[in-house]
UniProtKB/TrEMBL annotation:
Native source species: Sphaerisporangium corydalis
Main location as per UniProt: membrane
Subcellular location: Cell membrane
Protein name, entry field: Carbohydrate ABC transporter permease
This protein's record includes keyword Transmembrane helix: yes
Region annotation (Disordered) ranges: 1-20
Amino acid sequence: MTGPIPGTGVDLAESRPAARTRSPLRRHGLRRAGLVGWLFILPALAFYAVFVLRPILVTFQYSLYTWDGIGPSTWAGFGNYVKVFTDPGLFASILNAVKLIVFFSAIPVVLGLAIASTIRRIATSRLALVARTVIFLPQVIPLVAAGIAWSWLLSSTGVVNQVLTYLGLGGITRAWLGDFSTALPAVGVIGAWVLLGLCTLLLLAGMSKIDPALFEAARLDGAGPMREFLSIVLPSLRQEIAVCVTVTVIAALASFDIVYISTQGGPGNATMVPGLEIYYLAFSERRVGVASALAVVLMLLVIAVALPIQRLTRDRSS
């Protein structure tokens, strides 16, 4: 369409070249702004490449060799990965880490939901502030100190056995961290205690963002506490629950501190986990290739577990 615009006297044919001359300038400005943005994030990218990507690539390189860390290395191909899945001891450590997910993830998230819901109902009282402080306290304590304290509590003469004896349950007392049947669950209880505060506060923060009008409307409709929880709280906390599950699952699979301090992988290999196994293989047995292969497998396992959780959450919220 050409000709003058009615009421303006401006010819469209004359106005189009001006628009064409402005668009290259606009594109140049956008390109320059993008370049400035990359310059801002360049230091962070360099830091990430040097201290994260490079060690991952070096670890993968080491996993393809048989090497003691000092002498010459020998090409092994994927033989070290075969050992990870065929050696009963190495594969058992992966299974132990998977079992710890129940304690490190399921228990803190479920209990965290219950405790956060209770604190939300008494949010105006001083007891709520005390409860938040006490529950979050394990997150502040160093894991080494927590492992030492729980080792004392769960020893054969510890407070736990003394309380059980006082209650007349002396028949079930034992060295909880030294018994083959209870060592791994005992380590799991320590992990659940440490992560409970983090999950509770994350879920409580999510509950604080829920519109109070939703609860008022539910009460007017005759909904009880359980119906409010199932119909309002749980759907509103989808993102927070996903964060809690992701963080706690990674903590279970990559556990090291608590296990090393409390049991050092014993008794036998009952509490051996991949992180501790990697440490022993690399620094005690000097099997750097196998240790690197197990580290790569552990990294892939963490990614394989964490990515679906994030993807499912993003798909549901979109």
